[in-house]
Amino acid sequence: MSQHNITNESLALSMLLVLVAILISHKEKLALEKDILWSIGRAVVQLIIVGYVLKYIFELNNAALTVLMVLFICFNAALNAKKRSRYIDRAFAISFVSITTGAVLTLVVLVLSGSIEFVPMQVIPISGMIAGNAMVAVGLCYNNLGQRFSSERQQIQEMLSLGATPRMASDRLIRDSIRASLIPTVDSAKTVGLVSLPGMMSGLIFAGIDPVMAIKYQIMVTFMLLSTASLSTIIACYLGYRKFYNQRHQLVVREVKK
């Protein structure tokens, strides 16, 4: 197996790629130079911290600490999903429940089926992938729900005036929102291997693993991303739509936060 070692010098030279992006931003007057530098600096600091934390956790190999790390990942994913909920106030609880439920159920199936072992070196990276994917799907779910409730307010109010319950009046919107939120994940699964070689597969091949074995791992990743995104989005939609009604079952559509 070939070894690929990245030295500090080669890593520093790779910063030239960032300089290209900064120069383009400056030349085209995009005003993104500060944002690029801030995002790169933040990413480097975060990755260095996470690298040392993961090294400690992997060496310790403690089950309780592994579970806490999974919950920490889900917590941060829920925080970021909440920031994307422009139409729903205080969406953190919904985000945390939906993302954690989807991630935990997927991990349980993977562990019980023998696809992965319950060790931090396998559970934590997998948790990061599925929680990140669920975070994006849940964020899309919130925006899709809000846009549909806002654009179809009149139809919903007419249904409510005719005696429909909030669930009945929202049923089609929920289905459409779930479908729209899952489109990026479904499209990604359709084109995997044809348009893109995903991160796990590319990383394993780069590390010298047999491509056929890398493909098996990528198939497993595709399965778990689809399942987690579906579960998390369904839970988020069915919990989130209630935020558009008050206690008297009246429609309340909030203004979009700027």
UniProtKB/TrEMBL annotation:
Keyword Electron transport annotated: no
Major location (coarse): membrane
Coiled coil: none
Stated family: Belongs to the UPF0014 family.
Swiss-Prot/TrEMBL keywords: Membrane, Transmembrane, Transmembrane helix
UniProt keyword Thylakoid present: no
Transmembrane segments: 6-24, 36-54, 60-79, 91-112, 124-145, 191-209, 215-241
Domain of life: Bacteria
GO CC annotations, alphabetized: plasma membrane
Pfam families in alphabetical order: UPF0014 (PF03649)
InterPro entries referenced in this protein's UniProt entry, alphabetically: FetB, UPF0014_fam
Classification via PANTHER family: PROTEIN ALUMINUM SENSITIVE 3, UPF0014 INNER MEMBRANE PROTEIN YBBM-RELATED
UniProt-annotated location(s): Membrane
Source species taxonomy: Bacteria, Pseudomonadati, Pseudomonadota, Gammaproteobacteria, Enterobacterales
Membrane topology (UniProt): Multi-pass membrane protein
Protein name: Iron export ABC transporter permease subunit FetB
